[in-house]
Design brief:
Largest sheet: 6 strands, mixed
Structural class: alpha/beta
Helix content: 40-55%
Order of helices and strands: HHEEHHHHEEEEHEHEHHHHHHH
Number of domains: 2
Mean pLDDT: 83
Length: 395
């Protein structure tokens, strides 16, 4: 039956005069296009056979379309239109994932989608659409690593997590590292209920399993036994305790009137870019400082322990890089970004959900901000090699 242009216009007007008619017309057009495309595919492939249709619902701009996807016996036929629809769905999934990793809850994302796409998604639907992005983060967290890192910073941040119907603060270990070219990457994000030296030993061993063979320096806080864990896994690595932590601890345990004097003395003990200083001399100056104040503040005696020489390891490294390695401040910045992402939620539903969120933040940092090279590390390899040959770099 042939229709005139005016007749076709009238039919189309009748269909598009209501939202139901518009949806019906659009569904008919898309189904006809796909059916005709299969006919062309069959003509070009004589050995192929038709294999019926499969139903699918597609939501767009507040409308729900009922589609009949034509199939071939071999499964090689894939309509062009379906590829366009899938691209839109993938784009929507990436948007949902981005909003989730920026701190929005699945419920809030569902509400936003109603404004943007004209359809509200449930919390379960938002999570399902983001699954492909979760798989990307999981693969990234398990990727192979470089064999050599100039420095690796290790620390844990604590986040409220639901486990066995109870909510408690759990530790999430993270390890940014500096590559040979001065760029950075986050090596791992893992969960343990608590922070301990044995757990750190396991995670450092896991780095070896992913290809890490050598680390020049590991920077951490002074967790009990952590130096033994580092030495057991990477015996050739130097170890730096966080200076910012020990300064804060000492100042917090003295009276208000003595704080200015002690802060000034600590600045002199933990001096920077002094060519004459080394870790042994720095430790001796620190012991002398403690000796002056221990009678008034007996709690300072513990800082005379021999392990505390690790607070001065940075003095054995190039002066150009000392401000980059004497504290874990670089990892603290990353921890703050972690907290901004999860603080909007009162507690996370599972440890896996937290690792996904933190992993997404770490992946974004690695692929963007961490690509910028830290120019101070250009002095590292040259001075390290010279120091090793003279025996001045202590391990």
């Amino acid at each position: 039956m042939e229709l005139t242009q005016s007749q076709m216009s009238e039919i189309l007007s009748n269909y598009t005069s209501s939202s139901e008619g518009f949806v019906t017309l659009q569904s008919l057009i898309m189904n006809s296009l796909m059916a005709h495309e299969r006919e062309l595919f069959m003509d070009a492939n004589e050995d192929e056979q038709c294999n019926g249709f499969r139903s699918r619902r597609w939501y767009s701009h507040g409308f729900e379309f009922s589609l009949r996807i034509p199939r071939s016996r071999s499964g090689n036929f894939y309509p062009v239109l379906l590829g366009l629809i899938r691209s839109e769905s993938d784009e929507r999934a990436r948007l949902f994932n981005l909003l989730y990793t920026k701190g929005l809850t699945t419920e809030q994302i569902g509400e936003i989608s109603e404004c943007v796409y004209g359809r509200s998604y449930s919390k379960q639907q938002v999570s399902y659409l983001s699954n492909s992005c979760r798989e990307d983060v999981e693969r990234w967290l398990c990727r192979d690593l470089s064999s050599h890192y100039l420095a690796v910073y290790i620390d844990a941040t604590f986040i409220s997590t639901r486990r066995d119907r109870r909510v408690s603060k759990e530790a999430y270990y993270t390890m940014p590292g500096v590559r040979e070219d001065g760029s950075r990457e986050v090596l791992a994000v893992v969960n343990h209920p608590t922070e301990g030296a044995l757990c750190w030993k396991d995670e450092l061993e896991a780095l070896k399993g992913r290809g890490v063979k050598e680390i020049d320096l590991i920077v951490s806080d002074a967790l009990t036994g952590v130096e033994n864990a580092v030495c057991a896994v990477f015996p050739g690595a130097a170890h730096q305790f966080c200076v910012a932590h020990v300064k804060r601890q000492i100042i917090n345990c003295v009276s208000q009137k003595d704080k200015p004097a002690i802060a000034s003395e600590l600045s002199e003990v933990f001096r920077m870019e002094d060519k004459q200083a080394d870790s042994l001399r720095g430790y001796e100056d620190f012991v002398t400082f403690v000796g002056r104040w221990e009678e008034k503040y007996p709690t300072l005696k513990k800082y005379k322990a021999e392990r505390n020489i690790a607070y001065f390891t940075y003095m054995d490294f190039p002066k150009e890089t000392q401000r980059c390695i004497y504290t874990t401040n670089r990892i603290e910045r990353l921890n703050r970004k972690y907290k901004r992402t999860v603080n909007i939620r009162t507690s996370m539903p599972s440890a896996q959900a937290v690792v996904f969120l933190l992993g997404a933040v770490a992946m974004e940092e690695t692929q963007n901000a961490y690509k910028r090279k830290i120019h101070q590390f250009k002095w590292w390899k040259r001075t390290m090699k010279k120091g090793k040959s003279k025996g001045t770099i202590k391990r």
